[in-house]
Amino acid sequence: QVQLVESGGGLVQAGGSLRLSCAASGRTFSSYVMGWFRQAPGKEREFVAAISWRGSSTDYADSVKGRFTISRDNTKNTVDLQMNSLKPEDTAVYYCAAKFLSRAVVLSTLREYDYWGQGTQVTVSS
User: How far apart are CA 27 and CA 62, in angstroms?
Assistant: First the structure.
């Protein structure tokens, strides 16, 4: 099992940046595919970004491509989401997710992930 704790959310003006971090417990973090999802009020949770177990493969939602960057540090058991050029429509609760899968693949759908963090709020003001 793995436990996930997100941090780094907050209030930022449009055009600004935030860096989210997800800290994972456990000794097998490098065997997990990791993802970031978000959920805005009244909307379904949606895919944002994903990274393979060793970081060689990444995937992004079209809405964040070129603005967000996902990365991981398997020595520190963390996965980060650097968010630049933020827009009001990026406002949501952001969730970190994990799937035990020691392969160079990325996963972009909710049901593929087994573990979730509690979420961190990101609010972008116009």
Answer: 33
Instruction: Say yes or no to pLDDT of 121 above 80.
Output: yes
Q: In this prediction, what percent of the chain has a pLDDT beyond 90? A: 91
User: How many Å apart are CA 99 and CA 120, to the nearest integer?
Assistant: 19
Q: How many CB atoms lie within 10 A of CB 102?
A: 13
3-state SS record for 23-66: EECCCCHHHEEEEEEEECCCCCCEEEEEECCCCCCEEECCCCCC
Helix (H, G, I), strand (E, B) or coil at 88: helix
Per-residue confidence (pLDDT) for residue 1, from 0 to 100: 83
Q: How far are the Cα atoms of 39, 77, 107 from residue 91, in angstroms, in the given order?
A: 8, 26, 23
Question: Residue 82, exposed/middle/buried by CB under 10 A (0-12, 13-18, 19+)?
Answer: middle
- How far apart (Å, rounded) are the C-alpha atoms in residues 34 and 72? 9
The CA distance from 25 to 47, in Å, is: 23
